[in-house]
């Protein structure tokens, strides 16, 4: 009884094999401009593009693979970081919000100085936070920032103080971090990174100047040192775009917020290199945090709230010495391989100068809330560069490494932003690809579709 069935299976096997053989012959011998050749080309191009969207293997220029990054981020890093940034120490960022663009002073954007911001009464600030009066605006001065109230920074803070930190400038960034007279403290939890309505020529001009004048896209065969700045900025740009799309004002009339998947796809997910650069930047910053583990473990997280401060210290130790992270990805990025050639010292100086220019561009951002998060994340990236490429990188202990409080706040908040972006790409990416018609599956699925 089984013989006819087995015979039928063998016949169908031969038929399928013959069909595949004919297709292969067609690939070799069919003229390029024929209709069949066109179909074959589309199949091949679809398969190639899909391979680029399946993020697997090692992250380029890093020491960890995509699957491990996604797993360890979901299991360890993301939940820990989400908690850490809510503690008082990491909640308050000191920033120069007024605009004094060093590159195009006659542009007119700097007339937005302190625009759309309601300053808290001076009595609401702790003594250590206070700055000279006279820069405040009345509560009814709320219309500016390109007409979008979402661009305004909420400066409400509570009575917290910081102790025991040195004020030292970061050699990689443009701001004078020791100039307290021009700084104000901002509660990051009240000012999330999201859509603000900041678009158009002024926004494009910032990114154009960043890429075209400061970090060119070198081909993959160029040395790692020449590629690094572009990849870091591209990864940061991808992360910012993802957060704007993930928390978007969908309907201004009803004040409805949600995910703009079209924007997320158009800005990031449709470009595999942007996603890869996001993972690269995430691992680069993670490496800087783990490399400075001894320093960050001993750091003073005192804000005057003993319970919260103790929890901050405990959570930071978990982050720095988590056994799952150390086992899965002990060295996310190997900075020791860089700047070793004859041109090493010259390349690092050039990179530092370019990054300083990018840092200065943050003062040209015409949206206050965008400027806040731009400055924070550029300082965080500059702190990562400072840690990984400091002169005394052979022994980054407390005597050799000096970080100021604002650098640590920026570094950890940046790592949290990147962690959140990686998680969103991992969880939302596949479904967004399906919605926008990306071909899912390997070549066998596409081949079998031809014979149905």
UniProtKB/TrEMBL annotation:
Complex and partners: May function both as a monomer and a homodimer.
One Gene Ontology CC term in the entry: endoplasmic reticulum membrane
Disulfide bonds: 110-115, 367-370
Keyword rRNA-binding carried by entry: no
Ranges that cross the membrane: 12-30
One Pfam family hit: ERO1
Gene that encodes the chain: AERO1_3
Classification via InterPro entries: Ero1 (IPR007266), ERO1-like_sf (IPR037192)
Source organism, top-level taxon: Eukaryota
Binding site for FAD: 194, 196, 207, 234, 237, 267
Coiled-coil regions listed: none
MF terms (GO), sorted A to Z: oxidoreductase activity
Family that this chain belongs to: Belongs to the EROs family.
Cellular location(s): Endoplasmic reticulum membrane
Membrane topology: Peripheral membrane protein
Chief localisation class: endoplasmic reticulum
PANTHER family in UniProt: ERO1-LIKE PROTEIN, ERO1-RELATED
Keywords: Disulfide bond, Electron transport, Endoplasmic reticulum, FAD, Flavoprotein, Glycoprotein, Membrane, Oxidoreductase, Redox-active center, Signal, Transmembrane, Transmembrane helix, Transport
Native source organism of the sequence: Castilleja foliolosa
Residues annotated as catalytic: 367 (nucleophile), 370
Protein name, entry field: Endoplasmic reticulum oxidoreductin-1
Required cofactor names: FAD
